Amino acid sequence: PVWEAFQPDWIITAAYGRILPDTILQLARWGAYNLHASLLPRWRGPNPIAWAIRAGDEVTGVTLMAMDAGVDTGPIVLQDRVPIDPIDTRDTLTVKLAEAGIRVFFEARQRYGDGPWPADPQPGTGVTMAPKFQDHESRIVWQEPALVIDRLIRSMSAEPGAYTIWEDQRIKILAAEPVARAAEGRFGRAILDGNDWLVTTGDGYLRVRQIHPAGKRPMTPGDFLRGRRDKGLVIFQ
After folding, report:
1. What gap in Å lies between CA 76 and CA 137, rounded to an integer?
2. What start and end residues bound the annotated signal peptide (predicted)?
3. What are phi and psi of 82, to 5 degrees?
4. pLDDT tens-digit series, residues 30-54
5. Which one, 63, 67, 92, 226, has least CB within 10 Å?
6. Is the pTM of this model over 0.85?
């Protein structure tokens, strides 16, 4: 009843996370559209930005599509490509894609007027899904290559955060970067280097610059270890 009384010209959603029933979609005089943060049909679902980073995609983008009964399956009105920089996190890429989404919406209005806007069916190939991460998928596996771990960290940002375990304590890794240098020692061994940790991975070191121990504020590894005698004996599980 509320929607019917409103009588919208458009229905526009972005990062809404729910499927609107057809009874609502039909209320919009000029159409119901969704801005999705990927180049559909790649990364359908609620977590496209994180999956694009984690997969190592060099380019992503936004898709303006007409909504239908499926999950991000509607026909495409316009798309805009956005490069993914090697240092992009989920947070920084979200800002870029939000700006691209605004551009795409106003381009559609300029190109097609009020609507309804023409749209083409999505390709039947190249479909990938972007589900929410499960908790175990956020845990760092130090046997993996440093670049893979770096992508995981950047895809998680602060929340939910990629994490590791030390002395039964969960520690989120907030900022890190691969180091092109042969590593020594067992996987997950962290050596203090200034205020950073150099952690042994499957193919080299990962330089960890900022962490967030459970129940504490974000800090550098150096601050975390200040006052401890066993600074050289950190082995992550």
Report:
1. 31
2. none
3. -135, 120
4. 999 999 999 999 999 999 999 999 9
5. 226
6. yes
